[in-house]
Design goal:
Elements: H1 12-29, H2 48-59, H3 66-69, E1 72-73, E2 84-85, H4 91-94, H5 96-125, H6 128-154, H7 158-171, H8 183-227, E3 252-253, E4 256-257, E5 263-266, E6 272-275, H9 289-298
Antiparallel strand pairs: 1-2, 3-4, 5-6
Length: 304
């Protein structure tokens, strides 16, 4: 039987269901970013071989330049023949780091889908064991993302530049009038690439923070399912109360009954102290004035 909840603990499992469900849908949609499709963030993940081929074709053309290919056409030695100067870049070697980073990022995306799916399943079935797996899996996926993004950031953008220029200048299927194989264009393209990497890391920090909070919520839900609400949890409707010591309105002091006319005077501690007046003391016939004084003196309790 599920523990009885109170305060903020009561909706935590139900809230985790919505929380993890929404984010699970988001990360499933995020798989699109690894497909060779328009606006995909990592569209070259499964197309790096064609990128390398097109980059090498560009560097073998008359459009090649030293800024992109580390080689360029020399002076024509005969009509229609062009010789190239420079050893040129090894596009396949330059693409190795990017290929590894994008493959690891795709694997991390699948791990993220599995982690949030596990979290959603644990919330729906109220399984503490499943939630424990989710608490470990969610941060683990972001460790993989962190490594993958380091590899992508360290990768050379030259193969991508050569591939792009090939489709602009040779194939003509990309419309970009400013694209040209010059050092100025390479500098501009490098600045754009750096901005994209910065945006990538900002997005990573935001999603990692949200995912960390989901993992913490899963941990709290698991703790609640195992142990119930914390012992110091106080329901919001519970108000602080002040315990007041009750004193009888009428009593006996040294064998002398107090009169109902005794006044109740509040003290600094908030405890009512009954004070008997002179008429509140019943004096037996024949009692001495000393006995009366004693009765009156004992009828006024002094604060301890």
């Amino acid at each position: 039987m599920e523990p009885k909840c109170c305060g903020c603990c009561c909706p935590i499992v139900q809230g985790l269901q919505w929380y993890s469900g929404i984010f699970c849908a988001v990360v499933v949609i995020g798989v699109y970013n690894y497909m060779p499709a328009p606006r995909a963030s990592f569209g070259f993940t499964f197309a790096m071989s064609s990128v390398i081929d097109d980059a090498e074709k560009f560097c073998d053309s008359s459009f090649a330049c030293d800024a992109v290919c580390a080689r360029g056409p020399c002076e024509e030695v005969s009509s229609g023949n062009v010789s190239f100067c420079g050893e040129g870049h090894d596009m396949e070697a330059l693409s190795t780091t990017r290929t590894a980073g994008q493959a690891l990022a795709f694997f991390a995306q699948l791990c993220e889908v599995a982690a949030f799916g596990t979290c959603l399943l644990g919330a729906l079935t109220r399984s503490a064991k499943t939630l424990k797996a989710a608490v470990v899996a969610i941060p683990g996926a972001y460790v993989l993302f962190f490594i993958a993004y380091i590899l992508i950031s360290a990768a050379s953008p030259v193969p991508i530049f050569a591939w792009y220029l090939y489709h602009v200048l040779i194939e003509g299927n990309v419309d970009d009038e400013e694209a040209e194989c010059t050092q100025d264009w390479v500098d501009d393209a490098t600045a754009v690439n750096s901005f994209g990497l910065g945006f990538l890391w900002v997005g990573f920090c935001i999603t990692a923070a949200v995912s960390g909070h989901i993992a913490f919520t899963a941990w709290a839900a698991r703790r609640f399912l195992l142990h119930g609400a914390p012992t110091n949890a106080v329901h919001p409707s519970t108000a602080a109360s002040v315990q007041v010591r009750a004193l009888p309105p009428q009593g006996v002091v040294s064998g002398v009954p107090l009169s109902p006319m005794a006044a109740s005077v509040p003290t600094a501690t908030g405890v009512a102290v009954p004070i008997a007046t002179a008429t509140a003391v019943a004096v037996p016939p024949g009692a001495s004035t000393g006995a009366v004084a004693t009765a009156v003196g004992t009828a006024i309790p002094m604060p301890q």
